[in-house]
Amino acid sequence: TRGTFNALVETWVPCVPSELRTLGTGSEQTSGANGNPRAKASKLEFKVVNELWDEKAYKYKVVDSTVPSGEVEELDEYVFVIRVRIDKKTTDPKFYVDIKSEALRDILRTTLRDVNGICLREDKPTVEQNLLYNRLTELQEYQCDPSSLKHFNLLVNFVKTTYSSTTKRLIALLENHEITYDLLWALFKPNTVVYTTCFGTGKPRCVRYDFGEERTTSNGVEYFHLECRYVDFDGKVFGETSIELAIVKFRGTKRINSLDAFPLEYHPSKDEVKANLVECGHKFVSLMGVHHRQYRGDAFYMRKGQPIKVPVNSRVMIDAVYFQEANPNYTRPRINESG
């Protein structure tokens, strides 16, 4: 009900600074000042709106949104809009930033160009609010054109103000190489090199982090899901493929290097680990193709989603193409060809 929704909004409204919360109040206008047609990003302001699941329309809808008037909607007049979506199942809020300013859109296309999992090609793109905080350093280092400076400063100041308490907590924790579960999203930044171990052999490995979110298994276990990528070869294609990692929810603080996956920079022997993995990478590339080798150690194969270890001490053939031909139903991650 609307009453329930309003109560939820009041619960989560401290997540947004007080100066923002006033922007969503007041009467709605259907035209610009002096009755002139609306213009995109004509107000040097931003607005907070709430989004609720509409059972009849079967989609999320902005509460009390106005009917479009002409080509430019009322919300398009702002530089950007903070959209607070209340999840229909968990009632947890998720914060999005809808970019209305073309100048700001172009800036984000540059500063976020190496971030996977987002699309900034749209005329009015949307970015998760937490991502902007993750890339705050890059934003602050951006050399902004004077004509776009006001819009740019409005966004940067919003992020800094909104996450000021998060920054204080994070700095205190990271100084001691510790983290809490609720701040894992801030620990992992896009393109971070993540240290973990191979689920089949238990040996060290590194992958590159793309994005993460909290999830719950069918058994009710909460965890932080990490979407990552690494380089692989299937006998024909050499390129990047994806891998999913998980950190089960925990209470209190944990040493960062005690997590099942963590940024490589927090490993006590990060330089040694990096050197060993680079050496392994060179060996991997050298074995692309067909090779006959002596091998002693553990191998593994997957059965019903679980790794099955196999001890090996014999001559072996390395031939990824033949392996696929001999085992056509053996699933492997799809590889995106490099270049």
Low-confidence stretches: 8-14, 18-30
Give the beta-strand count: 15
Strand order of the largest sheet: 12-7-8-9-10-15
Mean pLDDT rating: 87
Helix content: 25-40%
Shape: elongated
- Protein structure class: alpha+beta
Q: Report the radius of gyration as a whole number of Å.
A: 25 Å
Largest sheet: 6 strands, antiparallel
Compute the number of helices. Answer: 10
Strand content bin: 25-35%
The H/E string reads HHEEEEHEHHHHEHEEEEEEHEEHE
What is the terminal-to-terminal distance? 51 Å
What does this structure look like?
Helix content is 27%, strand content 34%. A hairpin with a 4-residue loop joins β9 and β10 (238-248). The chain has a six-stranded antiparallel beta sheet with strand order 12-7-8-9-10-15. A five-stranded mixed beta sheet has the order 2-1-3-4-5. It has a two-stranded antiparallel sheet with strand order 6-11. It starts with a helix and ends with a strand. With 339 residues, the chain is an alpha+beta fold. It has ten helices and 15 strands. Mean pLDDT is 87; it is low at 8-14 and 18-30. The longest helix is centred in the last third of the chain and has 17 residues, at 270-286.
Summarize the structure.
This protein is 27% helix and 34% strand.
Describe the secondary-structure layout:
Layout (H helix, E strand, L loop, with lengths): L1 H11 L5 H4 L21 E12 L4 E4 L15 E9 L6 E7 L2 H10 L14 E3 H6 L1 H6 L7 H14 L1 H12 L2 E3 L3 H4 L5 E5 L6 E13 L5 E12 L4 E11 L4 E3 L6 E2 L6 H17 L3 E14 L2 E14 H7 L9 E2 L2
Parallel strand pairs: 1-3
Antiparallel strand pairs: 1-2, 3-4, 4-5, 6-11, 7-8, 7-12, 8-9, 9-10, 10-15, 13-14
